[in-house]
Specification:
Elements lengths: L16 H18 L13 E6 L5 H12 L3 E6 L11 H9 L5 E6 L4 H8 L3 E7 L5 H15 L6 E5 L6 H12 L3 E5 L15 E3 L2 H7 L2 E4 L15 H8 L3 H5 L6 E3 L12 H4 L6 H23 L2
Parallel strand pairs: 1-2, 1-3, 3-4, 5-6, 5-8, 6-7, 8-9
Helix pairs in contact: 1-11, 2-11, 5-6, 5-11
Bound molecules: phosphoric acid mono(formamide)ester.
């Protein structure tokens, strides 16, 4: 396979295994390039990309912007808090006005599930989903699986447990799709109030006991408790959540084997993950961030290749 089967990156669900492998192979090359003294290539110098963030972001926003600049694209950034969206303009009107300035590709983060897909059907530009509500965060899942492949040689056959607030997590859903397409076994672990009812229909096992889940897995991907998306109390208190489901160095040292610990960020230190573990050699959290740039370069390079046809 030399090109993607899709014209937009809306979610992992729409991708084939071969698409993911092509993105990884391309990201391998970009990772080599961005670790050289000259980190930039002229590949997208005739492409203009708009980053539209309707929700807060540190990693994803900066990672996309850096990836675009490393590819020599022209970049414009839009943040809803300082825009005319506040004056009542619709999403499609906002984007069409930006596209009128000759923009080719739109990277969008939005609180509403389906926002990226909606745009892909209603505007004339390549759309990259940078996270839509609790639905999908495809580049996060790609960089997560890429980081597992880097640390453990391959994803196929590995056991990965996703721990915590699965209910409100776009990272969890995209990771489940990505890991399963690559041949990994996936489980989730957390209080039943934070696990969606449909989880079994995805072929994912639910552990309610943290230590059993950690003893089963090769990789633990620990999620943040998304208080900003919680309209009711899903557990008695953060302190009690942390006592039962907080992952720390002590519990990892008590396991029968060594495992890899991941976190998509931002971390709530001392809630879902202890500081000593987050900063230990078990954790590959900053490798994930580093790999995010290469993965996003690969995605935009491959999608831009389809634009020119
Ligand atoms: N992992 C992630 O999406 O982080 P940000 O919200 O900071 O972009």
């Amino acid at each position: 396979m030399s090109e993607l089967s899709v014209n937009h990156l809306l979610g992992i669900k729409n991708l084939q295994r071969e698409d993911i492998e092509l993105i990884f192979k391309t990201a391998d090359n970009f990772k080599r390039i961005i670790n050289q003294p000259i980190k930039k290539v002229p590949t997208l110098r005739d492409i203009t990309i708009a980053n539209l963030f309707f929700e807060n972001s540190t990693r994803t926003k900066l990672s996309f912007e850096l990836a675009e600049k490393r590819l020599s694209a022209d970049v414009i950034n839009f943040s809803s808090s300082s825009s005319s969206v506040k004056k009542g303009e619709t999403l499609v009107d906002t984007v069409n006005n930006i596209l009128a300035m000759k923009v080719d590709m739109v990277v969008i983060r939005h609180p509403n599930p389906g926002a990226a897909e909606f745009l892909s059907r209603n505007v004339k530009a390549t759309i990259v989903n940078a996270g839509d509500g609790a639905h999908e965060h495809p580049t996060q899942a790609l960089l997560d699986s890429f980081s597992i492949r880097e640390r453990l040689s391959q994803v196929k056959g590995k056991k990965v447990v996703i721990i915590g607030d699965v209910l409100h997590s776009r990272v969890a859903l995209s990771n489940i799709h990505c890991l399963q397409k690559l041949g990994a076994e996936v489980a989730v672990c957390g209080p039943s109030t934070l696990i969606p009812k449909f989880i079994n229909s995805l072929g994912v096992h639910h552990y309610s006991d943290l230590k059993k889940a950690l003893n089963w897995c090769d990789v633990a991907n620990v999620l943040r408790i998304q208080l900003e998306r919680q309209d009711v109390n899903y557990f008695p208190s953060l302190r009690e959540y942390s006592m039962v489901y907080g992952v720390n160095k002590e519990i990892l040292d008590s396991l029968e084997k060594e495992i890899v610990v991941m976190h998509p960020g931002p971390i709530n230190r001392g809630v879902e993950l202890s500081s000593d573990l987050a900063d230990s050699d078990f954790a590959i959290i900053l490798d994930q961030v580093e790999n995010g740039v290469a993965i996003r370069m690969a995605v935009m390079y491959l999608l831009a290749g389809k634009l020119k046809k």
